[in-house]
Amino acid sequence: MLEGIIAAIATVLVVASIALLVYILRGRSSRSDIVSNDEIESIETYGVGSASPAGASASPGGAPGVHVKTSEESLAKPSQRLSGRFGGLAAFVAAVFAALGAKLWSMQLLGNAGYADEARENLMKTVSTPAPRGCIYDRHGRVLVKNNPSQTVLAEASVADDNDVIKRLSAVLGIPEGVVRQRVKDESQGAQSQRVVASGVRLRDVAFISEHSDAYPGISIEQRTLREYPYGALAAHALGYTGAPTEEELEKTPKGRVIESNDIIGKSGVELYYDGILSGEKGSRRMVVDAAGKVVNVVGETDPQKGSDVHLSLDLHAQYVADKALAETIAPEGDIGTGAGVSASVVAMDLRDGGITVMANYPTYDLTHLTDGIPQDIWELYNSEESHSPFINRAINGQYPPASTFKAFTAMAGLAYGFANYGSTWRCTGEWDGFGSGDIQKCWELKGHGTLDLHGGIVNSCDVVFYDIAKSFFDHGPEGTGELSETALQEYIRQYGFGDATGIDLDGESTGRVPTPEWKADQWRNVPSEALWLGGDYSNMIIGQGDMLVTPVQQACAYCAIATGRILKPHLIKEVRNGAGDVVFSAEAEVVAEPDVDNDHLEYVRRSLHDMLASNNMLSSMYARLGVDAAAKSGTAEHTDREDDAWFAAYAPYDDPRYVCVCVVEQGGSGSTVAGPIVGKVLAALQESDENPEAEAGYIGGSSGVSRVKEFKGGGGRQD
Q: What are phi and psi of 305, to 5 degrees?
C-alpha cells in the first residue's frame, strides 16, 4: 500500500515537471512574436484624448489617436498572448489528472485484490495469550514447583484515555493512579494487546469489578498462573526461578521460540535449562480494530497449551534433610557466623544412573519471593558483601582445594606408577623435607604418625606418605631420570574428570583446575621468579592443596569412579511427561569414562576408605546409628587468610554402592567434625526415602542476608 502511494506521488511529480517545462518553452515562443523597440519608427501622440489640431495627420482609418509605424508588421493582439498561457496551464492540469487517473485505474482494477487483502489485514490484529508452565516433580512424583491460579486484571489500550476508569481501578486495587496508568499504557507486547494491571488480585476485588462491569469498560478478569514453591528455599539453586526476559534475552531467543517482553521465562536452574519444555504453547486472540487501533470485536481465540511436566532425579526428603542440615550448621541462630562456616554445598548422586538426588547450597534464597522476578530489596540484600552471595550455585560454581579427599585418587596414581605398593612403608615424624630445600612441609599431625603403609596413610590421612609419592613423580620427570613427562601425575588424575565440566544439565558450570607447569608459567608470566614449576608444586597438589581446584559435583562424579569403576554423566532430569501424562523422555545412564586402573588397586583403596570411617569413633558410631555402612574420606583445606574449608566424601552401602555424597563447608574447619555428619544424614535420608517415598519434607527458609562472622586471627591447624 505504502509503495503504491509513493509511486503515484512520484508519477505526478514527473508529469508535472514535464508539463511545467512545456509551459515555459511555449511562453518564450509567444514573447518572440512581440516587435522589438528597434522596429518602431515613430509614435505620434498629437490629439491624444482630444481632437487633432489643424494640419495634424489622422490615424489610419481617419480616427485621431496614437499612430505607430513598424517596418514590417503590427504587434500581436493581447488575446493572442493570453491564449498561449492558458494553453500551457491546461496541459499541466490535464497531465496531473491523467496521472492520477492512471494510478486510480491501476489500484482499482489491476491491484484491487492485493489492496483489499491489505486493508482487511490492517483491520485484523492477533495477540498472544500466555501458557501455563509445566510443573516440576521429584523422583517419586512429589511436586516441587507448581502453578498457582492468579486472578489477573487486564485492560484494553483505550482505558488509558478514560480517567474515571483509571481512578476506579486505583481505588479498588490499592494501586496508585500513576502506576495503573503506566501499566495500561505499556505497549511492550503490542499496541492492541491487553495490558496486565494487577496479578494475584483478591477474589473480593475481582467480584466487585465483575458486578460493576458497566463502570469498568475495557476491563476484563482472566485467571492466569504464577509459580508456587511449596517448600520455599528447598533446592532453590537446582530448581531456579522465573521472570520477565531482559532485552539481551529477547535478542538471543532460541531458534523456534517466540518470546515477548511480558512473557515469563526461566532465569536459572532447571527453570532455565528446560525452559523450552516447561513453557508450553501460547494461545491467541484475533480481533477487529478501527482506524485508531482500538479493539472493536474479538473474532477468534485459541486456548494456550500448558507446558510439559518435568520429573527430576531429586529426592524431596533427602533434599529437605540436606538443606536443613546446612542451615543448622552455618546459621543455627538465623545469621551466618553463629555456627560453623560461612557457606556450603552438598551433592548426592545415584550411582546407578547418574541422577542428582540432592543439590543443596547455603546461603540460599526463598523461591516464593521470586515468583514474578526479583524484588529490588531482595536483590540489594543478597548482593551485599555480608550476605555471602546466596544466588551462587556452589555445587557447580564453587571451586575449592579438595584437601585430603583428593588422596583417594593420588593413592591410585602412586600404585599405578609403582611409587607405592602393598608392602611400602613410610615413617612420619610430622615434618618432611624430601627435596632438601630447607623448606619444611608439615603433616597435619604435628607429632607424626610413626611408621605407616599406604593403607595407614589413607586411613590416617598422613601427608608425609603422599609427599614421598609426589617426590617420586618429580624424580622420574624431566628434572630427574626423565622416564615420565612433567605432567604424568596430572594426566592420571584427569582420568577422573578433574579440570573438565561434568556436563550436568545446568547452565554455567565451572571446570575447576588441574595445575601444570604450562599453567603456572602463564599465570606468573609477569613474575618470572614465581613461574617455575618446582617439586613443592607436586607435593602440594598431591594432598589436594596448592593450586588444585574442584567443584562439589566434580568430586561426586570422581568418587563415583572409586565406588563403581566408572564415571557417569550427572543429570537432574529423570523424565518428561506431556499434557496427557505420557512419558515422552526418560534419562538413561551415560558412562563418560572408565579410568584405566587395576581392579586390585581399586579394591585396596576402597578398603582403606571404609577403614578410615571405621577408625573415627565419633563418625563410626553416628553412621552406625543412622544405619549407614559407608566408605569415606575427610579433608581440611588450609588457607592463610581465612579459616579452613571442611570436606567429606562418602559412598554407601559399602558392599553394594548406590549413592555417593560430597559436602564442603567453606571456613568450616575440620572435615570429619563439620562436614562428615552432614553427609551421614543425607545418605541415611536417601536410604529412608527408598523404603518410604512419602518420607518427611518441610519448608526451608532463605538466608537472612546478615553475617556475624568474626575477624580471622589465624587458624588452629588442620585436623585431617
A: -110, 125
